[in-house]
Write a structure and sequence with these properties.
about 45% strand; alpha+beta; 3 helices; 11 strands; eleven-stranded antiparallel sheet; Lipocalin
Length: about 210
Amino acid sequence: MNTTTLRTSLRLALILGSVSLVAASAAPQSFDFKDPKGVNNVHFKLDAPLESITGTATGITGTVAFDPAAPAVTTGRIVLDTKSLTVGNPVMGEHLHGAHWLDVAKYPTIAFDAEKLANVRVQGAQTLADVTGKLTVKGVTREITVPVTFTYLAGKLGARLGDDKIKGDLLVLRATFEINRSEFNIMPGQATDKVAENIVLSLAIAGAAPRS
């Protein structure tokens, strides 16, 4: 090997070594889903033969660790305040919060703990994946898999908050999935003509990662 070739090889080795060190030192960003604007929301729908019930919830908190360079290692926990669940009919809302249904006094939160991602596909700023984790509703925990779209928006925190002086990134999560209320001990098998067994949940929530 001549001197020129040796120098080129050494330079290449140094460059590759530097890239490896940068990759090894990179860490996921932590995104906070407690929304100061109060816009984050979950919609739910129960479509029974006699009645179709729809409602929303806005009491959302939690954190997600996300690395746009390695989305497959995403982890996190999203928590919903059950008292924030509302429906259009006030009496129906009281029943929803009551001991026979969600019993919000005893079970003040619904939580999803993401554990692993599969079928990860990156499409520009979006990452699509099947997220498997533990869903806890009314004290019952079950493993479920949810199709989730992650949208990483670098430098867009200030734009969302209406203040360009605020620096940071956004992570938007969108998902639609179903759960069976009987599996979570929510009046199993009861009143199915008016309250559907399957609950369709749709969420669109944004998490913030401020930076200086």
